[in-house]
TrEMBL record:
EC id: 3.5.2.5
Function as written in the Swiss-Prot or TrEMBL entry: Catalyzes the conversion of allantoin (5-ureidohydantoin) to allantoic acid by hydrolytic cleavage of the five-member hydantoin ring. Catalyzes the reversible cyclization of carbamoyl aspartate to dihydroorotate.
One Pfam family here: Amidohydro_1
Binding partners and assembly: Homotetramer.
Classification via NCBIfam families: allantoinase, PRK06189.1
This protein's name: Allantoinase
A biological process from GO: purine nucleobase catabolic process
Superkingdom, natural source: Bacteria
Modified how: Carboxylation allows a single lysine to coordinate two zinc ions.
Cofactor entry: Zn(2+)
Keyword Hydrolase: yes
Amino-acid positions noted as binding Zn(2+) 1 in the UniProt annotation, renumbered to this chain: H63, H65, K150, D315
One GO CC term, this protein: cytoplasm
Length: 444
C-alpha cells in the first residue's frame, strides 16, 4: 500500500468540470490519487479532514505588481505573496513594472527571481516588459523563463517604464511572434485620455466623475481595435488586460471569431465596485481604466457567465496610503487598487452566491485558463499528476473584511468593510500547507 505525504479527505472537490465529494492523495508535491466517492484506503503522513468544505485547485493571479526590488515601500514579495496565500492563490505572475529596475532585460529578471524565490510563500512567475528600448532583449527574457510580455499603450505612471509607441508595438509584436511568446497590453488611447484630461483640468473639473469621463470606454475600444490589427498583421498572440466593460470584451469576441489568437482579462474591482465607490472611498478605488457605472458592472457579469472573458485577475497595484489620499482632485493620487487577497472572495460572493455563477467556472477563470494561456503545465486543475496546489474553502462562512485582516504592506483596500461569503481555510502549495485559519505555517 502506498504511503502518501498528505491526504485531503471528504471534501467537495471542485475542478474545471465538476464538483464531487472525494479524497485527494499527495506525494512529492504532486497529486498522486483522486478518489470520488470510494475513499482512499492508504494512510497519509498528514491528513486533513475537509468534511463540509470545498477543495479548489490553487488559484493563479496572472496580474500583480509586487514592486520588489526597488519599490518595496509600496509592497514586497513577502507581504504580497502572503496576501495571495490568504486569498487561496498559489501562483502569481509579477508585472515588469513598479519594481525598479523594471523587468526589461535578463539581469533585471534574475534579480527579481532571486528575491522572489527567497521571499515568496507561493509560486512566482514573471512578466517581461516591452518598452521602446528593449526589443533586442525580448528573446533573452523569454529564454530565461518569462511567461509573456507586457506593454502599455498609454503612459504607465512609472518613469522607468516607458509606454510603447505604435512602432515599438509593431516591431515588438513581430519579434514576440517569432520567439513564440505572447503580448499583454494595457489598452487605453493616449490621445483620447490626454486630450480629455487636459480639457477637464482647464475647466477646473476634477471630481471622481470627471476623472472617469476623461478615460471613457471608447478609449479602451480604440486601443483594443488598434492592437488587434497589429496582432493580425504580425501573428503575435495577444492578451488584453483589465477590460472594464463588456463593450471592450465584445471587440475581442469579434476578433476571436475571425480567428485572431487573443484573450481578455477583467479584474475583481470591475465586477464589484462602481463610480459610486470611487466617489465614496476616494483614492482607494482609483484605477485605470477607471471603475464604471452599475449597468456596465452587470453587463460584465453577463460576459463572465457567457464565457466571453478568459481570465480574472486582481491587478493588485498597491501604494502607501499617503499616495491614495484624494481631497478634491481625482486627477491626483496613485491609480491602482489593493485587491490580491480578495479576488477569489469577490468571485465566490458576487459570482457564485449572488449570481449563481457555477464554481467550475470560477476554477476555469482563475486557474485552468491562466495555466493554459500562459503555458503552465500541470497547474490550474485537480487531476493525477498535477501540482498539489489547493485552496480549501468553507462556502457557508461569511465574514466582514477588516483592515487588520489584510496582509499587504499597507493595510488598506476598497474592500474593507465588505461582507464576503466563502472563507479560505487552508492554502496548500506544492503539497505543503502554507496558510491555515489566519496563520502562515511556512517560514521564509
Ligand atoms: Zn497592472
Amino acid at each position: 500500500m502506498t504511503n502518501y505525504d498528505l491526504i485531503i479527505r471528504n471534501g467537495h472537490i471542485v475542478t474545471s468540470e465538476s464538483v464531487a465529494k472525494g479524497d485527494i492523495a499527495i506525494k512529492d508535491g504532486k497529486i498522486a490519487e483522486v478518489s470520488i466517492n470510494e475513499g482512499i484506503g492508504a494512510k497519509g503522513a498528514n491528513e486533513i479532514n475537509a468534511e463540509g468544505l470545498h477543495v479548489f485547485p490553487g488559484l493563479i493571479d496572472s496580474h500583480v505588481h509586487f514592486n520588489e526590488p526597488g519599490r518595496t515601500e509600496w509592497e514586497g514579495v513577502e507581504t504580497g505573496s502572503k496576501s495571495l496565500a490568504a486569498g487561496g492563490v498559489t501562483n502569481y505572475f509579477d508585472m515588469p513594472l513598479n519594481s525598479t529596475p523594471p523587468t526589461i532585460n535578463k539581469e533585471n529578471l534574475e534579480l527579481k527571481r532571486k528575491l522572489s524565490e527567497e521571499k515568496s510563500v507561493v509560486n512566482p512567475n514573471y512578466w517581461g516588459g516591452l518598452v521602446p528600448e528593449n526589443i533586442d532583449n525580448l528573446k533573452e527574457l523569454y529564454d530565461n523563463g518569462v511567461i509573456g510580455f507586457k506593454a502599455f499603450m498609454s503612459p504607465s505612471g512609472i518613469e522607468d517604464f516607458h509606454h510603447a509607441d505604435d512602432e515599438t508595438l509593431y516591431k515588438g509584436m513581430k519579434e514576440i511572434a517569432s520567439i513564440g511568446s505572447l503580448l499583454a497590453v494595457h489598452a487605453e488611447s493616449t490621445v483620447i485620455c490626454e486630450q480629455l484630461a487636459m480639457k477637464k483640468l482647464q475647466e477646473g473639473k476634477t471630481s471622481a466623475r470627471d476623472f472617469v469621463e476623461s478615460r471613457p470606454i471608447i478609449s479602451e475600444i480604440e486601443a483594443v481595435r488598434r492592437i488587434i490589427s497589429y496582432a493580425e498583421a504580425t501573428g503575435c498572440k495577444l492578451h488584453i488586460v483589465h477590460a472594464s466593460s463588456r463593450k471592450v470584451v465584445q471587440v475581442v469576441e469579434e476578433a476571436k471569431r475571425r480567428g485572431v489568437d487573443v484573450t481578455v482579462e477583467t479584474c475583481g474591482h470591475y465586477l464589484s465596485l462602481t463610480v459610486k465607490d470611487l466617489e465614496e472611498k476616494g483614492g482607494l478605488a482609483k484605477c485605470a481604466p477607471p471603475l464604471r457605472d452599475e449597468d456596465e458592472l452587470e453587463d460584465l457579469w453577463v460576459a463572465v457567465a457567457n464565457g466571453e472573458i478568459d481570465v480574472i485577475s486582481s491587478d493588485h497595484s498597491p501604494a502607501p496610503a499617503s499616495m491614495k489620499t484624494i481631497t478634491d482632485n481625482y486627477f491626483e493620487g496613485w491609480g491602482g487598487i489593493s485587491g490580491a487577497q480578495s479576488t477569489f472572495n469577490i468571485m465566490l460572493t458576487e459570482g457564485y452566491a449572488k449570481r449563481n455563477l457555477p464554481l467550475e467556472k470560477i476554477v476555469v477563470l482563475m486557474a485552468t485558463n491562466p495555466a493554459k494561456i500562459f503555458g503552465l503545465s500541470n497547474k490550474g486543475d485537480i487531476a493525477v499528476g498535477y501540482d498539489a496546489d489547493f485552496a480549501i474553502v468553507n462556502l457557508n462562512e461569511s465574514f466582514r473584511l477588516e483592515k487588520e485582516d489584510l496582509f499587504y504592506r499597507h493595510q488598506h483596500s476598497p474592500y474593507v468593510g465588505m461582507t464576503f461569503k466563502g472563507k479560505v481555510k487552508t492554502t496548500i502549495v506544492n503539497g505543503e500547507i502554507v496558510y491555515e485559519n489566519g496563520y502562515f505555517t511556512k517560514n521564509i
